[in-house]
Amino acid sequence: MSGLLVAGTTSDAGKSVVTTALCRAFARRGLRVAPYKAQNMSNNSMVCRGRDGVTAEIGRAQWVQAVAARAVPEPEMNPVLLKPGTDRRSHVVLMGQPAGDVSSADWETGRRHLAEAAHAAFDDLAARYDVVVAEGAGSPAEINLRAGDYVNMGLARHARLPVVVVGDIDRGGVFASMYGTVGLLEPADQALVAGFVVNKFRGDAGLLRPGLEDLERLTGRRVFGVLPWDPGLWLDSEDALDLEGRRARGDAVRRVAVVRLPRVSNFTDVDALGLEPDLDVVFASGPRDLSDADLVVLPGTRSTLADLAWLRSRGLDRAVVEHARRGRPVLGICGGFQMLGRVVADPDGVEAEPGARAEGLGLLDVRTDFAVEKTLRLPEGSALGAPASGYEIHHGRITVGDGAVEFLGGARAGNVFGTMWHGSLEGDAFRRAFLAETLGCAPSGVRFAAAREGRIEGLADLAEKHLDVDALAGLARDGAPGALPVLAPGGVR
């Protein structure tokens, strides 16, 4: 069994970035590579097909990592996906299919079957690929959760995986967090931690070297490299921690305001707009943020009714309606589209209390009724004279009235557009047609798939230059070095 676990000192330390980079770097060496994350907690997901041909839902990050690995995305690469609905309860997607809910109250006992399924999925991938690059979640040093952990050290112990810990130096305190991560682990877990990767370094590498040498001396573990800060290499993300970092730069002449819903999902739908040189894409939280926008986008949400109530509490509902009445375009995607309709109802309590119902913004003659069965589709079609495609992930059932016309699984009325197809703007032909129709933009020549591939290649180039990729490949092949020291306060014991 050949594999490697990329863990992190914190959430958003750079685990996804390093995992993606290693997937491409290992694939360049002729290895058959599979990405893996036992459990995601994210509302940013993607639809793929299992080996049986059935559509399945996985985390967006693992889908992108599969692209980086030159592998076909499949549910085994992210067997457990938790989609937060509230602060204490998450919807469970198991092997790509809905599997009820889990709450913080039953965090350990309610996840035992998830651990079994996750480890079985890893074993399946390991039997079919040369190497599995696994990404951890949060920090492996969450000692209050260790007993039920199957994502970090629980996975490493299951598969005897060597572990590399990534730390974000841009946050500060990286040496303490790396040392402390190892030091808090029990000896059997420490024995699998082989070393470290520093992420997001800015400045003179010479100034960092004494600290790296001390870290290696104090821990008895190697630093495999230091990745520099490079804001141009962002990738599709699995969470919304850095939405502001996705803002477009340059000499943009038209402003796109994306409403930052509290439970936003699949916000990568607007990534393609951010690549357009004539557009400045910003995230908006108040009515003033929409006042000078040329296009307003209501993105997807994990909880349409709750976020619709939030929209009203901030006065954003009136701002969106006023924007449309001034003749400016509005685009709603999935849950955001549902908000633009007349009524949103949840008779069975799929996202809210049973029988919950709310009036929408009334910009589209559409009614939404939530159903227990989830729709997972990879649709294709056309709109605005261009071919279009995307993916659907929703419980909402849409009824379009006479006052609107069909539009990509949704509806359109004048300058108001609503679609159930996530990812449709990633299609270059459709995006050009939509921007010409709504903003009068001339074709820019941007190719989204090529841009993503360029980012992946650039990230792998960065890893090849600044990390010892061959040593990491050897680590994945041979396992953690034997007799690694156990840390105690003050250094190696």
Topology:
Blueprint: E1 3-8, H1 15-28, E2 33-36, E3 39-41, E4 45-49, E5 55-59, H2 60-69, E6 80-84, E7 89-94, E8 97-103, H3 112-128, E9 131-135, H4 153-159, E10 163-168, H5 174-183, H6 187-190, E11 193-201, H7 205-219, E12 222-228, E13 254-259, E14 264-265, H8 271-275, E15 279-284, E16 295-298, E17 300-301, H9 304-313, H10 316-325, E18 330-333, H11 335-339, E19 343-346, E20 356-359, E21 366-377, E22 380-383, E23 386-389, E24 392-400, E25 405-407, E26 410-413, E27 416-419, H12 428-439, H13 448-466, H14 469-478, E28 487-488, E29 491-492
Parallel strand pairs: 1-9, 1-10, 2-9, 3-6, 10-11, 11-12, 13-15, 13-16, 16-18, 18-27, 19-21
Antiparallel strand pairs: 4-5, 6-7, 7-8, 14-17, 19-20, 21-24, 22-23, 25-26, 26-27, 28-29
Helix pairs in contact: 1-2, 1-13, 5-7
Main attributes of the structure:
alpha/beta, glutamine amidotransferase, Rossmann fold, 2 domains
Written overview of the protein:
The chain is of the alpha/beta class. It has 2 domains: 3-234 and 454-492, P-loop containing nucleotide triphosphate hydrolases (Rossmann fold, 3-Layer(aba) Sandwich), CATH 3.40.50.300; 279-443, Rossmann fold. The strands form 8 sheets. A 7-stranded mixed sheet has the order 15-13-16-18-27-26-25. A 6-stranded parallel sheet has the order 2-9-1-10-11-12, with helices on both faces. It has a 4-stranded mixed sheet with strand order 3-6-7-8. The longest helix has 19 residues, at 448-466. The two termini are 30 Å apart.
